[in-house]
From TrEMBL:
<dbReference type="InterPro" id="IPR018090">
    <property type="entry name" value="Pyrmidine_PPas_bac/euk"/>
</dbReference>
<dbReference type="InterPro" id="IPR036566">
    <property type="entry name" value="PYNP-like_C_sf"/>
</dbReference>
<feature type="domain" description="Pyrimidine nucleoside phosphorylase C-terminal">
    <location>
        <begin position="348"/>
        <end position="422"/>
    </location>
</feature>
<dbReference type="Pfam" id="PF02885">
    <property type="entry name" value="Glycos_trans_3N"/>
</dbReference>
<comment type="similarity">
    <text>Belongs to the thymidine/pyrimidine-nucleoside phosphorylase family.</text>
</comment>
<protein>
    <recommendedName>
        <fullName>Pyrimidine-nucleoside phosphorylase</fullName>
        <ecNumber>2.4.2.2</ecNumber>
    </recommendedName>
</protein>
<dbReference type="Pfam" id="PF00591">
    <property type="entry name" value="Glycos_transf_3"/>
</dbReference>
<dbReference type="InterPro" id="IPR036320">
    <property type="entry name" value="Glycosyl_Trfase_fam3_N_dom_sf"/>
</dbReference>
<dbReference type="InterPro" id="IPR000053">
    <property type="entry name" value="Thymidine/pyrmidine_PPase"/>
</dbReference>
<dbReference type="Pfam" id="PF07831">
    <property type="entry name" value="PYNP_C"/>
</dbReference>
<comment type="subunit">
    <text>Homodimer.</text>
</comment>
<dbReference type="InterPro" id="IPR035902">
    <property type="entry name" value="Nuc_phospho_transferase"/>
</dbReference>
<dbReference type="InterPro" id="IPR017872">
    <property type="entry name" value="Pyrmidine_PPase_CS"/>
</dbReference>
<dbReference type="InterPro" id="IPR013102">
    <property type="entry name" value="PYNP_C"/>
</dbReference>
<dbReference type="InterPro" id="IPR017459">
    <property type="entry name" value="Glycosyl_Trfase_fam3_N_dom"/>
</dbReference>
<dbReference type="InterPro" id="IPR000312">
    <property type="entry name" value="Glycosyl_Trfase_fam3"/>
</dbReference>
<keyword id="KW-0328">Glycosyltransferase</keyword>
Amino acid sequence: MTDIIAKKKNGEKLSEQQIRDLIDGYVNGDIPDYQMSALLMAIYFNGMDEDEIYILTDAMKNSGEVIDLTDIKGNKVDKHSSGGVGDKLSLTACPVAAAAGVKIAKMSGRGLGFTGGTIDKLESVPGFRTDIPMDEFKANVNEIGLSIISQSEEIAKADKMIYALRDVTSTVDVPALIASSIMSKKLAMGSDAVLLDVKYGDGALMKTKEDAENLAKLMIMIGEKNGKRTDALISDMDQPLGNCVGNSLEIAEAIKTLKGNGPEDMFKSTVEMAGRMIYLGGIAETVAEGERIAEEMISSGRAFEKFREFIIRQGGDVNVIDDISLLPVAAVKREIKGKDVGIIDKSQIRHISALAVGTASQICGAGRTKKGEKVDPGAGILLNKKAGDTVEPDDAIALLYASDEDKAQEAIYKLTNCWDYIKIK
Ligand code: URA
């Protein structure tokens, strides 16, 4: 291991055998955290080339269970988002694509920080089961085209261990490590094609468009070398996606979007993402045709019906899907007016920091600060006004749902700093 660390410290390329030994040794406990930490930092400074990244991904994929989806008929398409505030596209794009005939067998995570992950959002529907057995998962995909379950501890074990170490050694923001981490899990899931949504902006891991594009290129290279159709969308995460941030709030907004009456940006992003999934799944010959089919799935009501079927299949309370007012709501509700954030004349909002809204939502109880913490399914923030909207001092610009009064106060304090506006005539 000391030779491997020294080689990378000197900017040299690691051999295939060295990379495979490194992953095996770390998973079986022969390589201690302090040596792996030193290597991660050397990779931070000197990077890895494409061959090294490809082998690292393969070794991490094979460090755990690899799912075989060959007995599911049809083209299986997976999607992955590098994460953002209010990003609920798995809840909308997957049912749209499944309604068009794409097969989606998806594992998702619980969130750490900001709001919960897709699994936390789905669990805000009473009764919804995210830990179903593999046979049931595959049967669901075969029969209705869609199933989403929580990330198994057995998938890409090395990634889980290395990610935990990266988190505490300031080595998360390393393109080679992010690309191999994400793709090792996607490849282990066994789909035929992968669509990546790489976000950039103040609420995302990648801060600039250029960094997001470079990360996307690396992941596409890994996917294609593995014989998977792989594509990426690059999207802006400067302000939250849609108007809702928080678990049940995001379910409600996803339902509205699937019924065709959600926010404009959610509709556009859903069609864009589902359109590409439909194209990657071989149902459309071009992305434009895929997008047209996606729009049709929404306008015909088939996308919402697919979502409903998916919720019922996994034990969720269908009454809540048919009447979103039955979704859980946090104990304390507060309205934030224009004047509360300093607006004293008619103004136009220029920017809302996604990072600040995400953090405020987490404070409300929608996200975790520690692994394993419970989230409040009904906590979060509803933004009535976003960039470009006109606001009067007495307009309610946001609604905040918090688990208790202290959390509400702290979140309001955080939120009041996140509005950027100019006075207009
Ligand atoms: N998401 C992942 O799964 N891995 C990373 O390294 C970063 C984001």
